[in-house]
Design brief:
With 109 residues, this protein is α+β, with helices and mostly antiparallel strands. 25% of the residues lie in helices and 33% in strands. This is Antibiotic biosynthesis monooxygenase.
C-alpha cells in the first residue's frame, strides 16, 4: 500500500472550504488502484487551521498512474497561472510506503 498526505494550513475560519473541496465526489474515485481518501481537520484551536488529506493507493505504481494521467494533469493545467486562494498560508505533500497496519480485532472470551 502507498499513501499520499497533503498538509494545508489556512487562515482561521477557512478550514471548511478545504474540507468541502476534498470531500466532494471527484474523478479520483474512478482511478484504478485508488483505495480511499480521508480528510482530517486538526482539533479546533485559535489561529490558523490545519487540514490533512490522506489518500491511500494499492501501490506506488497506481499513485504514479494517477499523477501522470491526462485527467489529473488537465485539472492542473486548468489552474495554471491562477493565484492560489489568499486564505491558504502553506501547503505541502509527502508520499509514504505503508509498512505496517493494524485492524480492529474483537476480543474473544
Amino acid at each position: 500500500m502507498f499513501a499520499q498526505i497533503k498538509t494545508l494550513v489556512v487562515e482561521e475560519g477557512y478550514a471548511g472550504k478545504m474540507v468541502e473541496k476534498f470531500s466532494t465526489p471527484g474523478i479520483i474515485e474512478e482511478q484504478p488502484g485508488f483505495l480511499d481518501l480521508t480528510v482530517l481537520q486538526k482539533k479546533k484551536r485559535k489561529g490558523n487551521e490545519e487540514i490533512l488529506v490522506l489518500i491511500r493507493w494499492e501501490s506506488e505504481e497506481a499513485w504514479k498512474a494517477w499523477e501522470t494521467s491526462e485527467v489529473h494533469l488537465a485539472g492542473h493545467r486548468e489552474n495554471r497561472g491562477k493565484p492560489k486562494p489568499e486564505f491558504i498560508i502553506e501547503g505541502s505533500q509527502d508520499v509514504y510506503h505503508v509498512i505496517g497496519q493494524k485492524e480492529y480485532r474483537a476480543l474473544t472470551k
